[in-house]
Amino acid sequence: MNYPDSVRFLYELGNELKSAKYDLGRMARVLEALGHPERRPGCFVHVAGTNGKGSTCAMLEAALRADGRRTGLYTSPHLRQPTERIRIDGEPVSDSLFVQAFETVRGVAEELLARGAIDLHPSYFEMVTAMGFLLFREQRVDIAVIEVGLGGRLDATNPVEPELCVITPIDFDHESFLGKDLPSIASEKAGILKPGVPAVVAHQRDEVAPVLREQAARVGCELRHTDEWCVTQLALDAGGSRFRLTGRQTIDVVCPLAGSHQVENAVTAVAALDCLGLREEAISDGIAAVRWPGRLEHIGNFVLDGAHNPAGARALASYVREFYGGRRKRLIFGAMRDKAIDEMAGALFPLFDEVIVTAPRQPRALDPASYREVVEHPKLVEAVDLPAALERVQGSPDPVFISGSLFLVAEARDLLEHKA
Asked: At 356, which CATH number?
């Protein structure tokens, strides 16, 4: 099977949400049949949370690579191609490696199905997760950073046996799968904590912190809090930040990822890297070199940000107020219909002179005509799709923000880079 055929096969299995409520039995049997590639001592860092997971993972991987290690990085979702989910030494795996891993995992899954060892074919996310573990073993990475897909306790990544766990800020998202209140969501995220494995925990909301402490005590793991580190000499601009971080060591950090929320992500990454024994130079060099597309990414006068839940929208709103407060600006917004549209729109829409609502090319996308039912704005414009929205702002000198979904951001990157 070639690369396009393997991707088509995976898409037909359904997306991440399809396996969100399953137990881990099927995943465990697939990994067992593969020889347990998720059980390589000292080879994994496991990262959960609501917002900042991907950025934190990218910083961790970049610093580990700057330290001279051969790295793996497993993240989701992808922006353009599924190969982006599995990276080795900072680069997406080749199409041929992806296909080889796919064929191996598919063969194992079909054999398990044939003899009744599993009742259903593994989902898209389960397949690609198993492929990631397999490739990290076959490519002999020294250490791989593994991002949880959804939740934690029942996530397909959770069979991993990590050297370190990391939990970024926990907030509301995927409530239909994880629970309607923050303690319930936190309990699912805390499911990655494992006996004897230290965990670095970012600053959390008041309702979340006790849940993490209780789970850590229950399983017997040490929590190390980012609150133990102090940020000084902070300088923020529209393109990133500089600051000094003092904890068990003192590190000068230059973070090229924009927004004050990325300072918090960088602090989490530094605390985790310190636990892994990295030296100051590798930490500083790695974070300074990190790239993470689709997160306050500037392309000409466009600013692309994948905020897709209320906390992400609030972080974007803070950035807009701080660096674009007195300027005329426009927003192109498109989200999934199962998101908290009213909260996201409430945080963002009042900041913009014009809001163009559209729909990402996804079955779950909210119809642009539906926005008027949940939000008011004096200049709310509907666009049937993103090309139509971009046509409306073509030639405008105003900053144009594009947000609401990583799917919309991915589509925008393709269209804008093609025009360039």
From this structure: 3.90.190.20
